[in-house]
Design brief:
The chain folds into two domains: 178 residues, no CATH class; 152 residues, no CATH class. It has one helix and 27 strands. The strands form five sheets. Strands 3, 4, 5, 6, 7, 8, 9, 10, 11, 12, 13 and 14 form a twelve-stranded antiparallel beta sheet that branches. Strands 15, 18, 21, 22, 23, 25, 26 and 27 form an eight-stranded antiparallel beta sheet that branches. A three-stranded antiparallel beta sheet has the order 16-17-24, with no helix packed on it.
Length: 336
């Protein structure tokens, strides 16, 4: 995550258009591979800090236009070295690819789909990763249509990630390959417990091509209780107790605070907690049926839209069906 935040700082801002990120930086796409060290035979060199269990992330950008290797089956995209970064447990490490370096996308090549990178680095090490899957894994070789997380756990479709060099070898489980700039999330606010004895808590997930590409969910609510999401531009670190809940969204100007309760629009997040305390969507604004798909339009005067590079903050307000008291969840910040 830290790598993506570092890279994002240097990006120009671009709008979310038609439910998908408008291309930025002259038609480029971010590629991220995440792995967990399973075998450590690396005793010296630039990555000696890694050990079994360490999380390693490699990320880079490629132009959206690639070169066909096999027509309609295999496209090769040139890696842009200045955008390359490796992290070990969130700490950026030295190393950039020797040029030329490529990211390969294979669609139904010899009955398999695949994503692959393999190249020497300027510090003498060698990085490679490959994820394969069934022909249904990739529906295109157009990166603009492939923004998603890709994971393979089926032993029929191998995956690998490793770093080798003079210091030895690091063998990793390839956890996922991500195409595109993810929406990232962070929690805030200490919520008060509701009538279940537990506080309501939020979670977020990146959801490409749907609204603003952020999905919110809520758990640990009183069954049968209705509510909706709030959104704000700033956080109040102390919070204001309202009824039985703590509002941690800033309410003082110039901060903005809005409610996703716009009926008959995709800005209606009305939902009800089921018997397990999971928020079920009651407005038809969730492709999963639970939680809420954040739309591009913000519920403020003038109806501004979510823009890349922005951070917005969310809480869920709900009124207990039995006591009539109001409660609030913890907070969740989303960065585009």
């Amino acid at each position: 995550m830290e790598t993506m935040r570092t890279l994002r700082a240097g990006l120009i801002r671009c709008a979310l258009a038609a439910g998908a990120l408008a291309p930025c930086l002259g038609q480029e796409m971010l590629i991220t591979a995440r792995g967990t060290v399973t075998g450590d035979q690396y005793t010296a060199g630039p990555y000696a800090a890694a050990q079994v269990g360490s999380a390693i992330t490699a990320s880079f950008r490629v132009p959206l236009s690639g070169s066909p290797v096999v027509p309609d089956r295999h496209v090769r995209f040139t890696v842009l070295p200045p955008t390359f970064a490796i992290t070990i447990d969130g700490v950026v490490q030295p190393g950039a690819p020797l040029t030329p370096a490529y990211f390969d996308v294979k669609d139904d090549l010899f009955g398999l789909d695949g994503l692959r990178y393999s190249n020497a680095l300027d510090n003498g090490e060698f990085l490679e990763f490959e994820l394969t899957g069934p022909p249904s894994m990739l529906a295109s070789m157009n990166l603009s249509l492939l923004r998603d997380r890709y994971v393979t756990e089926d032993p029929l479709y191998p995956q690998m990630m490793q770093i080798t060099g003079s210091g030895g070898s690091l063998f990793l489980h390839l956890d996922e390959v991500v195409i595109g700039q993810e929406v990232t999330f962070a929690t805030f606010c200490d919520p008060l417990p509701n009538t279940t004895g537990l506080p309501c808590v939020l979670a977020g997930a990146w959801k490409p091509y749907v609204g603003a590409e952020a999905h919110l969910s809520a758990q640990q609510g009183p069954p049968g209780t209705f509510g909706y999401f709030l959104v704000g531009s700033s956080i109040d670190p102390v919070g204001t107790v309202i009824s039985q809940g703590r509002l941690c969204l800033e309410i003082q100007a110039p901060a903005s605070l809005g409610r996703y309760n716009w009926v008959q629009t995709d800005g209606n997040s009305l939902g009800v907690f089921d018997s397990q305390g999971v928020l079920q969507n009651a407005a038809g604004t969730s492709t999963t049926g639970w939680g809420f798909d954040v739309p591009t339009a913000l519920p403020f005067a003038g109806v501004p839209t979510v823009q890349a590079g922005q951070t917005w903050h969310f809480q869920f307000w709900y009124r207990d069906a039995v006591t009539g008291q109001s409660f609030l969840s913890d907070g969740l910040s989303a960065t585009w």
